[in-house]
Amino acid sequence: MARKTRLTRFALSAVVAGGLLTGCTSDDKSLTYQTDYSNHQPLKVVGYPSAGSLETVQKAVWRLADGDTDGLAALAVDDKQADATARNWVKAFGAAAKGDVTADFYDEGSVRQVVVLYFAKSGQIKEIEARIGEDDSWGLTLAEPDPAEAKAKPTWAPPKPGGSGSRTSGAPSEN
Fold first, then answer.
1. In whole angstroms, what is the distance from residue 110 CA to residue 112 CA?
2. Which of 68, 163, 166, 175 is a good FRET partner for 25, with 20 to 30 A between their CA atoms?
3. CB burial of residue 36 (10 Å; 0-12, 13-18, 19+)
4. What is the C-alpha separation between 47 and 116, in angstroms, rounded?
């Protein structure tokens, strides 16, 4: 009887431990995000991103740093020119994305947000747009199949983050 009790307790312990371990694991998306987060430089943020625009921009910088053109193209809200644009962006900004990057978020981010990326390592500046796509999830506008257009510095962006209004929350000012 003692042997049967010990075996039953062992089996029960294994089932409980397995259940606890299964209950404590994250889903694939969460685990991927956590792994990405721990494997990359932290993104510096200026302005007022929404949760969706922030996550999308952070993933974009990670894909650039990893040289992952497929992963970057997968963030596109419209994939007509996403592959070519992703290749251009990785070629132009991939090495710089491995260092410090500051994302300057403009305007309010309920459905669309312009973001200027400042790459400290190279001094490059890149304007991108995060927005909600037709499937109601956040993504990027990837519509720069011309390499010169893809690496062009925005003419309106300040030379340093936070220099021209990105600090507004999108709420009307009381003047």
1. 6
2. 68
3. middle
4. 11
d(CA 150, CA 86): 9
Q: List pLDDT tens digits, range 43-76.
A: 999 999 999 999 999 999 999 999 999 999 999 9
Radius of gyration, alpha carbons of the chain: 22
Q: What is the pLDDT of residue 4?
A: 52
Both structure tokens of 157: 């962006």
Q: What is the DSSP string of 92-128?
A: HHTTGGGS-EEEEE-S--SSEEEEEEEETTT--EEEE
H or E element at residue 167: none
Single-letter amino acid code for the residue at 91: K
Beta carbons of 76 and 67 less than 8 angstroms apart: no
| Residue 108 · residue 131 · CB < 8 Å | no
The residue assigned the tokens 């200027």 is: 116
Tell me if residue 48 falls in helix, strand or coil.
Answer: coil
Residue with tokens 């500051």: 102
Write down the pTM of the prediction: 0.77
Which amino acid is it at 8?
T
The CA distance from 123 to 132, in Å, is: 29
Report how far residue 55's alpha carbon sits from residue 49's, in angstroms, rounded to the nearest whole number: 9
